[in-house]
Amino acid sequence: MIWAGLISILLTALLVKADALSCYICNSSANVDCMSNLDPVTTPLRPAECNVANSKYCIKTTGTYGGFVGVNRFCSAFDMGTQCDYVSFPDHDRIYRACVYTCQGNRCNKGDTHSFSWLTVLLNTFLLLILRLVVS
């Protein structure tokens, strides 16, 4: 009976571990490989298991940090949305573009924020068919 209880606890722990979110976690000021879109095959960076309580999201931010353009990738329990905005600072007249990209799913903050859309594919196919009929 004790063995059954211990095995049950062990299996539960393994199942919970399997559900942990995995994101890329880096800061371009400390690691230049964090800057670009990450190719999972060639990048030396590896996704890490999120240690943030209730992590549901992977985040990628781009913007100006300490006067330098940079990228941060991290885990979050909060949906920060996906948006870009122009930011200015009071000490100079430059305007910077800062972006936040929030996603759900393992390793989703690698960088390419383009999502596949069947609607776009269908619309383009439809337009090509119409163009073909008009040209014929």
From TrEMBL:
Tagged with keyword Signal: yes
CDD domains: TFP_LU_ECD_Bou
Residue ranges of the TM segments: 116-135
DNA-binding listed as a keyword: no
Pfam families associated with the record: QVR (PF17064)
SUPFAM superfamilies: Snake toxin-like (SSF57302)
Family annotation (InterPro entries): QVR-like, Sleep_regulator, Snake_toxin-like_sf
Entry's Gene Ontology BP terms: regulation of synaptic transmission, cholinergic; sleep
Signal peptide start and end residues: 1-20
Domain of life (superkingdom): Eukaryota
UniProt entry keywords in alphabetical sequence: Glycoprotein, Membrane, Signal, Transmembrane, Transmembrane helix
PANTHER family in the cross-refs: ATILLA, ISOFORM B-RELATED-RELATED, BOUDIN-RELATED
Listed name of the protein: Protein sleepless
